[in-house]
Amino acid sequence: MARVSSSIYTALSLLVGIFIGFSIATWLRAHLRICQKQEEILPKPPPNFDDLPPDKRLLFVGIMTAQKFLDTRALTVYQTWGQTIPGKLAFFSSQNSVSKYDIPIVPLERVTDHYPPQKKSFMMLKFMYDNYIDKFEWFMRADDDVYIKADVMEKFLRSVNSSTPLFMGQSGMGKKEELGQLGISSYENFCMGGPGMIFSRETLRRIAPHIQYCLTHLYSFHEDVEIGRCVRQFANISCTWNYEMLHILYHNTSSKADEKLSYIGNLYKDYVLRATSLHPFKVTPHMYRAHAFFDALHARDLRHATLQLTRDASDMDALLGDRRTDRGRLALHPGLSRAPPAGKYDTVAYDFISRSLYSEKNSNPKRGPETATRDALESVVMALMRDANAASRERGRVIDFKEVLYGYVGVDPPRGATWVVDVLMTYKKYAGRKMTVPVRRHVYLQQAFTDVQFREETREDGAEASEGATVSNAYKTLQESLGVGLNLAGGLGGGGGDAENGHEDWVRAKVVHFILPLAGRFATFQRFMNNFESVCLRNDEAVKLAVILFEHAADDAIGDTVALVGELRGRYPHHELAVVHAKGPFSRAPALEIGARQYGRDALLFFVDVDMHFDAAFLQRVRLNTVQSRSVYFPIVYSQFDPATVYADDAAPRDPLRVAEHTGYWRQFGFGIASMYHSDLRDAGGFDLSIVGWGKEDVDLFDKMVRGGNVTIHRAADPGIVHVYHRIECDAGLEPAQLAMCRGTRASTYGSQATLAATLYASPHLLDPVAAVPPAGDSEKA
């Protein structure tokens, strides 16, 4: 009995010991977690800016934000203009705020993200004073949806004395319905918070000791009103009344109904260019777009400065009699005179612009001005008015633009674009004897061309382009054809060596999967395969070919087609060449869909037609311009005119890749030739299989790519691929829209407007309505 009791006691003791040990371990683990969490939320010490260079001690920007915006709006600000300000910035948010990105955050103790953010705003100003009052000259309170042009802001602030008490911003007095309810008199104001408030060091020094008092004596729910009241009471100043601050710190009120629509249109507007800060950007991609726009303007200004320096250097060469350096066309000064044209094709043709656009070289000679033309004209007029008013303040007058009555524009390749514009303006004199007079002037402007520039993007595997990498074969071909030096980002040193070879090998290693729909037309297919063999197979290019073959009642050459592909497969066993038989009548959309499904999602697909002739440089551009999940390539193809029209009096041999104005035209509205990754095709929704017969499937896919927005559409005129002429047969059974497109395309292939005009002048009987009537039964040929 004693032994049993001893055994039970021992077991109970063991169980109690295990329970106590487990409880202690659980408590210790929980305690360590609490300590770790407390350590994580402890406020970090403010960054120390003692080692900042003098040019970075101008401005400290405090950006008010909230936890929910730290990884969106705040990150966007930090990645765009936040990298360029002449000082530092920090994001002020509620206590315990964190971000998964490495951005400077100041979690304010005992501050929440509740609206209105009065305490957050005042505590941010106190933080600036406590930590940075002697490190910066100016302090700015900004929202996380404002864009600041750092270079313009720096120029503005350096023109003002920061040692005096100043409080700058866009002045406000409250809404009409709030008048008399904000605790401010009719002659008092405040700086509105949206576009930003700017404090001089002296102003912040005066109000900081009284922030607690201002927080406990609030008269409204508007934090910008209360900050203005505090500044007025303890710094004895008000927000600047200067009218120009409306343009310096700009708030867009045009889309008040939906602020998400701010700054989505054309940014080349006077108010955008004049402003120092722009507000609001509620959608983060809009701010990235604006940042890219201002970077492009800065690059334009640098190119213009380069152009001016080149001209100065050329003038100095002439002055010193030094002719050893040829500075090329960049050294040409603008002027209205030019060398006499060598022939009729060397004559510069001008487009006439009024309410309509009249163009000699377009198939639609009278039409509404295209967006590019309207934007270019607006840009020219804005540059004109900026130059005209450069010294308006000193002269006591201003010239306002009213409208363009009419104008001409022509492109002279050596010099650039020339504009002749008839402008209606208003001359206003506000100094001395005041007057307002309408003025009409002819303006002659010239936009000079600069060197062609290229940029090499990051490789698809994430590796950066080598520092010493030189141009690829495609770039070299373009360089030779243009006769100019190409400037690529990353440096183009001499040699290149292994870096160049590595880059070339990586580009050529991308397998291009040709997908060719075909029905009959064996002779044309033979020509295509000769071109394919010459460019791809003999040079051991990384390519594959899938011929989607339909039966064709008028051309029973299926066996010959299969035999030709089999012969090439036997001669080039390392290349995958396949024939896929398709059922039913020929239809391009199903054919391309069948071809795409022969390969995996990571395949680079190239949709091609049997009438195309291409070269090796084009193949390289397909690889360079098609990046998975990033870009697709829709080249603008050069299409040949009818040889019977073009070469009627010319017995010279015809080069299949010859590109000239009178031998063909660029198919601006053709989208059938394209390259993309299979995954991007699937993400866009693929081809519309309900479209049968000729046309429309390419436009449908292009529209899907545009609407999808997941990839960039790269579209450019490519001289390396040519549509060889063949007569287009239009099936009368097509849908009306398809039939009209088919007949329109066929009509555009007869010849250039100049050639057709010369033919009509030489044969006026063609305009005789009686003689122009076709014989019975031959209407389709006519």
From TrEMBL:
Keywords: Golgi apparatus, Membrane, Signal-anchor, Transferase, Transmembrane, Transmembrane helix. InterPro entries: Chond_GalNAc, CS_glycosyltransferase, Nucleotide-diphossugar_trans. It is found in: Golgi apparatus, Golgi stack membrane. The keyword Metal-binding does not apply. It is a single-pass type II membrane protein. The chain crosses the membrane at residues 7-28. Pfam families: CHGN. Its EC number is 2.4.1.-. Its main location: Golgi. Belongs to the chondroitin N-acetylgalactosaminyltransferase family. This is Hexosyltransferase. It comes from Priapulus caudatus.
